[in-house]
Design brief:
The complex is a heterodimer.
Chain A: H1 3-6, H2 17-24, H3 34-50, H4 57-82, H5 92-107, H6 114-137, H7 143-162, H8 172-179, H9 188-206, H10 208-218, H11 220-225, H12 230-256, H13 267-277, H14 289-309, H15 313-331
Helix pairs in contact in A: 3-14, 4-9, 4-12, 4-13, 4-14, 5-6, 5-7, 5-12, 5-13, 6-7, 6-12, 8-12, 9-10, 10-12, 13-14, 14-15
Chain B: H1 2-17, H2 24-49, H3 57-71, H4 88-111, H5 116-134, H6 144-151, H7 162-176, H8 180-189, H9 191-196, H10 201-227, H11 238-248, H12 260-279, H13 284-314
Classes of the chains: A mainly alpha, B mainly alpha.
Amino acid sequence: MNNHAREGSADEPKARGFGALASILKIGDWWTFVPPILISVLLLLIGQVINPGFANIRNIGNLLAIASILTIGAAGQTSVIISGGGGIDLSLGAMMSFGAVLASGLLQGSNANITRTLVVLLAFGALFGFLNGAGIWWIKIPPLVMTLAMASVVDGLTLFFSKGRPFGSPSPFVLAIGGGRIFEFLRWLVVIAVAFVILFTFIYRKTRYGKKLFLMGNNSVAADLNGINVRNIVLSTYIFAGMMYSLAGFFLLASVGTAQMQMGTQYTLLSVAAVVLGGTRLTGGKGTYVGTALGSIVLVTLSSVLITIGMATGVRFIITGIVLVGILSVYSRQPKLRQ
Amino acid sequence: MPSLILFLTIVVVNSFLSKNFMSVAAWTSFLQITTPIALISIGMAVVMLGGGIDLSLGSIVSVVNVIMVTTSGGFKDIGLQYTANIVSVPLILSFVVAMGFGLFNGLLISVLRINPLLATFASSFVGSGIALTILPTPGGAVASILGDLYYTPLFGFFPSCILLIILLYLIWYVLTRTPFRLQLYSVGISAPKAFFSGVRVPRVAFFTYLFSAFSAWLAGVAISSYFGGGDPRVGSAMTMSAVAACVIGGISLSGGIGSASGGIFGSLFLNLILVTILGLGIPGYLQELVTGGIVVLSIIMAVIISARTRKLRLM
């Protein structure tokens, strides 16, 4: 059994220091957060050595804001991967692009349209998510394939909607959220991401849905036998995920300022990498959203350091790949066959 | 064989839609476009039969393409020029690099035991990075004899590009006559059970990634001959098409079910849809939506058909 199931048992030894804090906050497995934090700090130091001023508070704030968008999008990915059964969502990037392009077209630069835009975005996200879940649950298409195919449909829909030339623009309020700061270093995007982290940690740890999600991820047969409606959990996980991707697209638009075709594509596999970096088990049933957020920070810092060094795109790809391999070989290895 | 049914259906539909579809010329050009994707679909199929997946195939194709283009004129910048080996040197060099990728993937997955999806995703980053570093912008040319060979039909009618597919399929066919077939399928169905039955699971998995890298090399050579030029992103869209082709071809993503020929027919079917839609005169902004929708529908049909046939066989 994994850790969160044991939480709260009386004979659990009292944790100290950060562990105590983690157990008060009900985030289990806090030690999985240590490697991403260490890697981020290391990357910041490397960046500071190469380019003094890289680790100043303003730049860190910007890095966190960029990581926030990945974090918000990866919320859906985290839930999907925790749900197990080969769960993975490759339609994330397409849905983010769709969300950004649609939001730009609906907002038309006016604050009055924000509510309507958000409602439409969430409805479309839920629809795409439902279609994913339906294909996976009823037709038994493997999640990897279903979401991949959905990605091409959503990309097609984006192209159809925008005729290849995204129109409209984000409204002043949306732009203020995307680029504005509360203090010198704290950008609104970071506040929103933190709110989502708290919300999802609460959902995972405190709600019936969260408990069922983890149980199903650990063993869907056992969950089914215990009277959990596995179908509803699968469907609602993909629906929530789709809604989160649309929202992430909205915030991506807010941060970038103009909608572009395919602007979210790169986020698909980055989100998977962030989830794995955060210590979530790819086979499901174990993981935290805090970890995902930290994983996003690592990935964003890494690419920022490489840009600072002035690497060509190609070399940056190579280094990202090698670093990814290094990280994966340290803590995403599968058990030996001989046990 | 769901993919064959789908493929034949679309062929029949197509022969009604366009009058000169059934001509030799139309089929030859169709096969010339489809050969590269069919090749890596065979490689992907073999990897998927063993329960893995190879997301780096498209980037290997790109690397092969740019290596062939940049070495075709000799190494001018280091003063080394050759004329006689204008074909063989690019072929050998790109072969070595492609197999290097196969080795790298095999090591990550078999020895380091990293999840295949993530490992090959990471190496696809390395691959596209190398391709972009060698050739940042599209350009260059491969030896024109390769294009001549690719385009000239044998005996006046037989598209020579099919020979590449036949070559790769023959290798697969020979392998299926050996114990390797049973080992591969048993690893795909259950790696632990295969292990306890004495199958060298890591070795079998390792081999499938070498095979898929080889298929990517062939695909890279084919696409270089087809285009005649270099593009560092030429293979990037191919990986996902190959996965879709394999699923349409009835190969289970969890491994152990299907055959390499499924990959061939799946890719033929996919490309035929693309060609059909281009031929229908649908406006550009609708094409992607229509193709995407058809791909989803065909995946749904393929999954339903193969689930039905499996039930029948069990009974």
